[in-house]
């Protein structure tokens, strides 16, 4: 499956967020070596399924050449496997996957199976697999995701442009009561600031309509229920969002953890606040230092503390735009029990943002 997509993105609508320029692809794959793959699973019989798997490879050799990483749980009503060992060890030792809540075990085990197929010397694996719930649009309790689906996403990962919206693990997701899904964005610092890149990939499945903002525009209030129906009979806590951040800046594990926390700011700018039932879990990794499996000594570099500040801003901005790219690319979907989730109308989004745009 190709990662390239003809789906529109936020900037295609003439809407620009943030102050730092994006990388050439405005995607997590602007960080050299990062690849992304998808398996999308949709059917209407015998069960209504709108689901899938997203796989992220920090590098082709991540099973043996490990990267420093850290994670942050903003609100923990969710799952990201492997984080106990990640926190203890400080290194990421395999690809990352994102899927639906009930498929975490299957997808996590597939990462182990792939390592065995490739004869990776390490006798055990504790891979990272995260989830958000797609049971509003997909009959999740039929357990549609299989080992083969997960292996396909892992094996078809590619560099370059990334498809967004209704794809992979994001297929059945809802964001601020509009159709959500998979989104990505990046920021590249100026040469004076180090020239580092930060890329974000999100699986967005959270939020209330009235909280949704794009820049200065209260989009969720502008596009009210009288304009476009919501997804639920009454307001409820809802979640979640997974954010994966990649950077080529030389960061130690604690610095990766600090970077992961900054996804919270980007989430807040769009309108997320971490409701009780939301699983808002963020992971950041750096490709700059390589720690070979079994090495007795590793020479590493560390970015200066003050030099991390621009990276923090880049992470927040990339997260914000990745969420919006997920919504802009997403398509109206009818799924389980005949429920329909509407994509955010591009013309109404443009009108709302234009109404609140700063006039210089």
Task: Describe the protein.
This protein has 360 residues and is of the alpha+beta class. It has one domain (17-292, 304-354): L-amino peptidase D-ALA esterase/amidase, CATH 3.60.70. The chain has helices at residues 83-89, 104-117, 147-155, 219-222, 253-261, 263-270, 308-329, 346-356, and strands at 35-43, 49-57, 65-76, 91-92, 96-100, 128-132, 174-175, 178-179, 181-188, 197-204, 241-247, 279-286, 291-292, 333-334, 340-341. Strands 3, 4, 9, 10, 11, 12 and 13 form a seven-stranded mixed beta sheet that branches. Strands 1-2-5-6 form a four-stranded mixed beta sheet. A two-stranded antiparallel ribbon has the order 7-8. α2 packs across α3 and α5 crosses α7 (308-329). The mean pLDDT is 95.
Poorly predicted regions: none
Q: Termini, distance in Å?
A: 45 Å
CATH names the topology as L-amino peptidase D-ALA esterase/amidase
Structurally, how many domains make up the residues? 1
Mean residue pLDDT: 95
Radius of gyration: 19 Å
* Residues in β-strands, percent: 15-25%
What's the architecture in CATH terms? 4-Layer Sandwich
| Coarse structural class | alpha+beta
Helix content: 10-25%
Q: Let me know the CATH homologous superfamily.
A: L-amino peptidase D-ALA esterase/amidase
> What's the helix count?
8
Q: Name the overall outline.
A: globular
CATH C-level: Alpha Beta
**Count of β-strands:** 15
Largest sheet: 7 strands, mixed
Name the helix and strand elements from N-terminus to C-terminus, one letter apiece. EEEHEEHEHEEEEHEHHEEHEEH
């Amino acid at each position: 499956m190709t990662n390239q997509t003809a789906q529109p993105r936020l900037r295609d609508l003439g809407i620009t967020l943030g102050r730092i320029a994006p990388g050439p692809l405005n995607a997590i794959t602007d960080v050299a070596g990062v690849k992304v793959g998808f398996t999308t699973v949709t059917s209407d019989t015998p069960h209504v399924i709108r689901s899938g798997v997203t796989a992220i490879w920090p590098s082709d050799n991540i099973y043996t050449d490990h990267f420093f990483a850290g994670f942050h749980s903003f609100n923990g009503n969710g799952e990201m496997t492997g984080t106990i060992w990640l926190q203890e060890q400080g290194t990421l030792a395999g690809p990352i996957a994102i899927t639906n809540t009930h498929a975490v075990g299957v997808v996590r085990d597939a990462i182990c199976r792939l390592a065995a197929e490739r004869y990776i010397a390490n006798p055990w694996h504790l891979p990272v697999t995260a989830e958000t719930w797609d049971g509003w649009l997909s009959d999740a309790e039929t357990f549609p995701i299989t080992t083969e689906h997960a292996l396909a996403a892992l094996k078809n990962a590619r560099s370059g442009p990334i498809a967004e919206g209704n794809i992979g693990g994001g297929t059945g997701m809802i964001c601020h009561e509009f159709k959500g899904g998979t989104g990505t964005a990046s920021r590249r610092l100026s040469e004076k600031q180090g020239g580092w890149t930060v890329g974000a990939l999100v699986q967005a499945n959270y939020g209330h309509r009235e909280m949704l903002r794009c820049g200065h525009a209260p989009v969720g209030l502008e596009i009210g229920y009288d304009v476009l129906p919501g997804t639920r009979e009454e307001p409820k806590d809802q979640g979640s969002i997974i954010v994966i951040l990649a950077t080529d800046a030389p960061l130690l594990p604690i610095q990766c953890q600090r970077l992961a926390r900054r996804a919270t700011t980007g989430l807040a700018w769009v309108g997320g606040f971490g409701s009780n039932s939301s699983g808002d879990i963020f992971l950041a990794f750096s490709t700059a230092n390589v720690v070979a499996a079994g090495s007795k000594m590793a020479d590493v570099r560390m970015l200066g503390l003050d030099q991390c500040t621009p990276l923090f801003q880049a992470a927040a901005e990339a997260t914000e735009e990745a969420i919006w790219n997920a919504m802009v690319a997403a398509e109206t979907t009818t799924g389980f029990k005949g429920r329909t989730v509407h994509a955010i109308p591009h013309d109404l989004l443009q009108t709302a943002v234009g109404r609140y745009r700063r006039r210089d």
